[in-house]
Amino acid sequence: MAPEPRPLDQREPIGIAAWTAAAVGLGTALFLAASMAGLYLLYRPEMGAVAPPRAARFPEPRIQSDPTGDLLDLQAEQRRQAQGYAWVDRERGLARIPVARAVESLAARGQAAYDPLQAPEPGLPLPVRSLAARRAEAGR
Question: Which parts pass through the membrane (predicted)?
Answer without folding.
Answer: 16-43
